[in-house]
Specification:
Length: 460
């Protein structure tokens, strides 16, 4: 390793506290430091090339070297590097971006509120719904239903929504008005012989029982990712949202679509809710909104909610919610250019052309002796490894299967991610069929080595 690489890695170890990282391991082994990107590839400080099979954090739709987005940022920075929307101010790119977003979403949208991150946007969803329900005179209607396995962020409120142990354990969960229903994981949780439709019936029944137990007049909203991403790429069973939403409507409960990962083409439609038959009242978007070249997220709300907020503000003076960088002109200009490029390059057709190949290559892993389930839609998917195919038996976390396989992938020049025992794939949307082949070739090598090691060490 060069002295340059050594000193950078040592510096990271000495000075940086890493997000969502095993801190013990980081202290022992240091980090993989990425220095530059090109197309779907990134390069570490030693110059080694990797395919970025996760588009970073499910976000760099245009890969790592889209100069149009860089130009949009530079141009806006020269013109106006910062201004805000507090106290009746506005900036031009934010207005244009809001207009464009409204025209894209598959529901009647009225206003767009900008934040920097998906967590802040989902936090805003809760605050707006609480504020709205106070405004319309039903202050007791405040509880929010989320799902085990869902990921909605890490702020205090959104970490309470997030139903994944790693993001909850060790941190307090102070909000007692957040409830959870089951993760809709057909492969893992369906009973012997139960069809997807029957499984969806059972989940809808569970939801209704919870609502009745808690009292429908105390429940404000239900939040869901159309396809669960961080929890293991879990598309819902057939008819799930149709049945869930029938109940939500019956009890006057708002549906929030968390489109932070699924939004902007990922599942083969512009929004994930179109793929899974979900009809949201409000929506959260982030990540691919700007291809992640600049931090920006948004909450998109309908007219009736906006009217409630306006009325409350007439009483209270101001709508007291906002973030210094929310609607920042530079990320807004980048996001706007990103959405224009999406259209100019006909990305939806491109995604629809290439995703059957992605899904076919992904599903080819189903024959592997250690693979229990393969699932996905569009350009997102997962390969779930099991200790026994027949019994659908998961590996114990202590077996270290994911960690071993991950390390082998790194060795072969592939960055992706494990969630539990599921290997996740969510490449940049610009990926070509040849690059998909290469990505899965590298994963296949790592998987075979993991299988060999697991057998040799008695893990399989
Ligand atoms: N919702 C979903 C579905 C996500 O996957 C994420 C982040 N991965 C978030 C919300 C939170 O976004 P952020 O990390 O920008 O706060």
């Amino acid at each position: 390793m060069s002295n340059y690489a050594k000193s950078i890695i040592a510096g990271d170890r000495e000075h940086v506290l890493h997000p969502t990282t095993n801190l013990f391991e980081h202290r022992e082994n240091g980090a993989l430091v990425i220095e530059r990107g090109q197309g779907i590839h990134v390069y570490d400080v030693q110059g080694k090339e990797y395919i970025e099979g996760m588009a970073g954090l499910w976000c760099t739709s245009f890969g790592f070297s889209e100069s149009e987005l860089v130009d949009a940022a530079v141009e806006q920075m020269r013109k106006l590097p910062f201004y805000h929307g507090f106290g009746n101010k506005a900036v031009v790119p934010t207005i244009e971006l809001a207009r464009r977003l409204k025209s894209m979403v598959p529901f009647e949208a009225s206003k767009v509120f900008f934040t920097n991150s998906g967590s802040e946007a989902n936090d805003t969803q809760l605050k707006m719904i609480w504020y709205y329900n106070n405004a319309v005179g039903r202050p007791e209607k405040k509880k929010i239903i989320a799902r085990w396995g869902g990921y909605h962020g890490v702020t205090i409120a959104t970490a309470c929504l997030t139903g994944l142990p790693a993001f909850r354990g060790g941190f307090d969960q102070p909000l007692d008005n957040i409830l959870h229903v089951s993760c809709p994981h057909y492969y893992r949780d369906a009973e012997e012989g139960e069809s997807e439709e029957e499984y969806a019936d059972r989940l809808a029944e569970e939801l209704e029982q919870l609502i009745l137990r808690e009292d429908p007049d105390t429940i404000a909203a239900f939040i869901a990712e159309p396809v669960m991403a961080g929890g293991g790429v879990i598309p819902p069973p057939r008819t799930y949202f149709e049945k869930i939403q029938k109940i939500l409507r019956q009890y006057d409960i708002i549906t929030i679509a968390d489109e932070v990962v699924c939004g902007f083409g990922r599942t083969g439609n512009m929004f994930g809710c179109e793929t899974v038959g979900m009809q949201p009242d409000t929506m959260t978007v982030a990540k691919q909104l700007s291809s992640a070249y600049m931090p920006i997220a948004a909450v998109i709300i309908p007219e009736w909610m906006y009217e409630g907020l306006v009325e409350a503000s007439a009483d209270r003076g101001i709508f007291g919610h906002g973030i210094t960088y929310g609607g920042h002109p530079v990320p807004a200009a980048v996001a706007l250019r990103n959405l224009e490029l999406f259209e100019e390059r006909d990305m939806m057709s491109r995604i629809r052309d290439v995703s059957p190949h992605f899904q076919e290559r992904l599903r080819a892993f189903a024959d592997h002796p250690m693979v229990g389930n393969v699932r996905g839609v569009g350009l997102i998917g997962a390969v779930e490894l099991v200790a026994s195919k027949e019994k659908r038996l998961p590996f114990e976390a202590s077996a270290g299967i994911g960690q071993f396989c991950d390390n082998r992938c790194i060795e072969h020049g592939l960055i992706h991610r494990f969630s539990g025992n599921a290997a996740l794939f969510c490449p940049p949307l610009i990926i070509t069929a040849e690059e998909i082949d290469e990505m899965f070739k590298r994963f296949g090598l790592a998987l075979d080595e993991t299988y060999k090691w697991a057998r040799e060490t008695g893990r399989f």
